[in-house]
Amino acid sequence: MLESFAFAYMQRATVAGVLVGALCAIIGVYVVLKGLAFIGAGIAHASFGGVAIGVLLGINPIWSAIVFCILTAWGIGLTSRRSYVKEDTAVGVFFASTMALGILLIGLKQGYQVDLFSYLFGSILAVTTQDVWTTVVITCVVLTTVLVLYKDLLFITFDSEMAEVTGVPAGRLYFLLITMMALTVVMSIKVVGIVLVSALIVTPAAAAYQLTEKFRNLMILAVAFGVGSCVVGLMLSDLLGIASGATIVLLSTVIFFLCAAISPQRRRSRPVTEEK
Amino acid sequence: MINGNDPLIEIENVTILHNGLKVLDSVSLTVSRGEFTAIVGPNGSGKSTLVKAVLGLIKPDCGKIRVFGVPVDQLHGQRSRIGYVPQIFNIDLNFPISVLETVLMGTYGRIGVGKRPKTEDKAAAMAALEKVGIADLKDRPLARLSGGQRQRVFIARALADQPELLVLDEPTTGVDMTTTGNLYSLLRELKNDGVTIVLVSHDVGVVASYIDTIACLNVSLVAHCRPDEEVCSRALTDMYGSHAAYFHHSDTPHIVVEEHPDA
Ligand SMILES: Nc1ncnc2c1ncn2[C@@H]1O[C@H](COP(=O)(O)OP(=O)(O)OP(=O)(O)O)[C@@H](O)[C@H]1O
Ligand SMILES: [Mg+2]
Predict the structure, then answer these.
(1) Ligand 1 test: best mutation among B18, B43, B170, most atoms within 8 Å of CB?
(2) In chain A, N or C terminus with fewer CB closer than 10 Å?
(3) How many helices (H) and strands (E) does chain B have?
(4) Domain range holding A229?
């Protein structure tokens, strides 16, 4: 099985898998704690529209998807922050319309079904050297941002109103967070696919959440689970010739249920007799 | 009226609508530096709304609000001079965070975005925890506190950065009588240190001995007066009925607070 690592495609996929696993897990911690999972799903579906625009214009779909997803994220953010409608309603509106746009645009271009499938469900074969480098750069940017703004992002995630009162720019940090979310989604498309990316964002963080009551440990555990699912998932999918995205996501789901089963939170809620 | 010479909060003709309904109707109120003001009024009278407008969380539909002499939407860095204990917390009670970390957040506004808290910031957070009497819980996850303990954590957070203006919206909800007494004597100490305090409370009788002014709110400002003034007791009786009658009958309205031996 390890022979395939000799192949350039598998090396590229592994590097991309490690980075994407880490990225998704880090952003996932904020998503889980701040309840942004539905925005994540919305942005992921919007990326389909972004990819379609790239395909139609003949440019790298990753670039068009980045621009399109960031704009969609800001659109959702603005619509809900101005409180025209609730956040999930805003997502609901953008979710379907951006996907519909994608379907419409793809329809204009003939013979793209194969490529499209790899965007929807991920394909390690589709990861190019350029994709790997883009992912390296984006991962560095997101990691640096999260480290530098560690305490501020923690504050707005925990108590946005109080952050605002004491002069922390909660609004701008929120937009920064959903921008990083959009970048993470686009970077993950090739590895897990549009349909499954929101699961890779939420699941490792949700699994880690079962095991710790410390934010720092939550980050570290989530990254371990995310990277672990991606690397093992890629190897398994290559070995068995099955879809990479689905394997990765199912693996992280298994981790989630294992964590939930051994969660100390659950132990606490059992009868008190145990404590005596 | 009672307006001192150095206004810290200036509310001018503020009107706020919620869904087209007037929640505050041209309220004007000035709080001087170092003054202890209580805001009273029945449920739904707009107390929290007024407080949120003062903090810049709600934009008035009409009127102006200045804090520290600056319009609230231009306070920026000066916001770290404000401590706030909200009535309702929009937070996840299972958030993975410790008591000390929560209190430390009170200093983040001053520290600034992208900078780390220093040893003295942590010391300030510890000191605030000691003031509310839960220093021993500092490493406890917030999720494993009782409601009253949690409330004390949020009071400590508001105190952590030695605010010049302290705004408390019904801070004693769910807090036991001893802690309530302790909180009120703490507020008295802070007032003596020159902190300006705005307290939304239903039990003003308790603090009447050391509040400077009472603002009686019922959509519009019904009265703004010293607690021993006749207008004040009349306004309170009008709003609350006989419930507030002890203001009439007692010249020394600090009846309840003296019952706490350790207050
Ligand atoms: N977000 C909102 N949307 C619509 N109406 C609101 C909103 N917040 C408050 N209100 C209305 O505004 C009025 C004043 O509310 P507010 O919370 O300021 O009252 P309060 O004096 O603090 O009451 P309490 O003593 O119960 O805390 C109420 O009638 C309430 O129904
Ligand atoms: Mg209120």
Answers:
(1) B18
(2) C
(3) 9, 10
(4) 3-262
Q: Which two tokens stand for residue B16?
A: 């706020």
pLDDT tens digits along B107-149: 999 999 999 999 999 999 999 999 888 999 999 999 889 888 8
- Supply the pLDDT for residue B164: 94
> Rounded CA gap, B230 and B211, in Å?
16
Distance spanning both ends of chain B, measured CA to CA: 32
Of B89, B106, B117, the CB nearest to A166: B106
Q: Which tokens go with A52?
A: 């379609």
Residue A242 covered by a domain: yes
Place of tokens 């009439």: B248
Chain A residues closer than 8 Å to B90 by CB? 159-161
Q: For residue B4, how far is its CA from the centre of ligand 2 (angstroms)?
A: 27
Point out the ligand nearest to the CA of residue B50: 1
Residue B76 CA, ligand 1 centroid: distance in Å: 26
Q: Give the start-to-end residue ranges of the domains of chain B.
A: 7-257
Instruction: Tell me the C-alpha distance between B163 and B75, whole Å.
Output: 14
Distances (CA, A) of A96 to A102, A121, A188, B250: 10, 18, 20, 66
pTM assigned to the model: 0.87
CB contact under 8 A, A167 and B116: no
Which segments in chain A show pLDDT lower than 50? 1, 267-276
* Predicted-complex ipTM score: 0.85
For residue A184, the domain's CATH number is: 1.10.3470.10
Please, which residues 109-138 of chain B have a Cβ atom closer than 8 Å to chain A?
109-111, 113-114, 116-117
Q: How far is B167 from chain A (nearest CA, A)?
A: 11
Q: How many domains does chain A have?
A: 1
Sign, Cα dihedral of B221, B227, B231, B232? positive
Please tell me the total number of residues recorded for chain A in this structure: 276
User: What CATH topology corresponds to B7-257?
Assistant: Rossmann fold (3.40.50)
> Is residue A273 a part of any domain in this protein?
no
Torsion of CA A103, A107, A111, A113, to 10 degrees: 20
Tokens of B1: 């009226």
Has residue A276 been placed in a domain?
A: no
A103 and chain B in contact, CB less than 8 A: no
A209 touching chain B per CB within 8 A: yes
- pLDDT for A26 equals 97
Span A183-231, pLDDT tens digits: 999 999 888 888 889 899 999 999 999 999 899 999 999 999 999 999 9
- Can you point out the beta strands (E) in chain A? none
The DSSP code for B141 is B
φ/ψ region of A261 (left if φ > 0, alpha if ψ in -120 to 50, else beta) reads: alpha
- d(CA B146, CA B137) in angstroms, rounded, equals 11
Nearest to A167 among B77, B92, B97 (CB): B77
**Nearest C-alpha to atom 12 of ligand 1 is from which residue?**
B23
